[in-house]
Specification:
The protein is built from five helices and 16 strands. It is of the alpha+beta class and 309 residues long. The protein has one domain: Creatine Amidinohydrolase (Alpha-Beta Complex), CATH 3.90.230. Strand 5 and strand 6 form a beta hairpin. One of its GO terms (molecular function) is metalloaminopeptidase activity.
Length: 309
């Protein structure tokens, strides 16, 4: 299956829609959609990415994001802010807080720093951050659902600052989380860092997928295939398409290039199901999923993680 380069019609291309009650998870209550509040305003003086209020289809821009010294410094600044916002968001995770309250806090911190929350208005996404709980693989929309003791939650933060995007995510524990979930989260994080460690100028992108798949296989975890890492910088999504599983992509990394690596692992099925909101992606069988993501810069010595405090 080839990945579409445009996200319009993505549901029809990649996913089967299923009833929310199909194959319920016996250990946890299945996620249900909550109430989504109105999108939050952004002050007029904060620059918007070009896609905001645009009618053009959202897709992956051709060509890698390669930067001069000024661009690299801008990427470091946006990446650092994204990391700081993510770190703050993680401190909010506790039983009883709603994902909408997390979105509100994240939104406020981003605009207080003069940045724009990149997800807001991207292809119609209604919120400023993605919050993906338990079996949600990615793109969860913050809503009125309160986190419960034992939940896991991936928080995906992207900021647009001085014309450049910084993108990062991590999976957090809510209260007392069982060992099964803890191990999945640890292995997923290890997959990301192992993949970053093999990056360098001239390295083939396929090395990333092999590294992730090899490590996940040791623990019998699945690697989600339909969602990928991507070039990032002046645009939100650009070449390359970074596959997280074994593949035959012969493209090679270049000096001063920036892109994301964002593996998604599952305990059970790797097949995604999209909710009727056209964004929320959950595992077909309700099994747990975890994700970690960094934006990296290819340097002469390997790779620099831009999204860390």
């Amino acid at each position: 299956m080839q990945l579409s380069r445009t996200f319009s019609g993505l549901a029809d291309l990649l996913f089967n829609r299923r009833n929310l009650d199909v194959e319920p998870n016996r250990r946890r209550k299945r996620l249900r959609p909550g109430k989504v509040s109105p999108h939050r305003p952004v002050p007029d003086h904060i620059p918007r990415p070009p896609y905001v209020n645009s009618q053009k289809p959202i897709g992956i821009v051709s060509g890698p994001e390669v930067h001069d010294e000024k661009g690299i410094e801008c990427m470091r600044v946006s990446g650092r802010l994204a990391a700081q916002v993510l770190e703050y968001a993680g401190t909010l995770v506790k039983p009883g807080i709603t994902t909408d309250e997390i979105d509100k806090a994240v939104h406020q911190m981003i605009i207080d720093n003069g940045a724009y929350p990149s997800p807001l208005g991207y292809g119609g996404f209604p919120k400023s951050v993605c919050t993906s709980v338990n079996e949600c693989i990615c793109h969860g929309i913050p809503d009125s659902r309160a986190l419960e003791d034992g939940d896991t939650i991936n928080i995906d933060v992207t900021v647009y600052l001085n014309g450049y995007h910084g993108d990062t995510s991590a999976t957090f524990f809510c209260g007392d989380v069982d060992d099964e979930a803890r191990n999945l989260v640890k292995v997923t994080k290890d997959c990301l860092h192992k993949a970053i460690s093999v990056c360098a100028p001239g390295m083939e992108y396929k090395k990333i997928g092999k590294t992730i798949q090899d490590h996940a296989d040791r623990y019998n975890y699945g690697v989600v295939r339909q969602f990928v890492g991507h070039g990032i910088g002046r645009v939100f999504h650009a070449d390359p398409v970074v596959l997280h599983y074994r593949n035959n992509d012969h493209g090679r990394m270049v000096l001063n290039q920036t892109f994301t690596i964002e593996p998604m692992l599952t305990i059970g099925s790797i097949n995604p199901v999209m909710w009727d909101d056209n964004w929320t992606i959950v595992t077909e069988d309700g099994s747990l999923s975890a994700q970690f993501e960094h934006t990296i810069l290819i340097t002469r010595d390997g790779a620099e993680i831009l999204t860390q405090c």
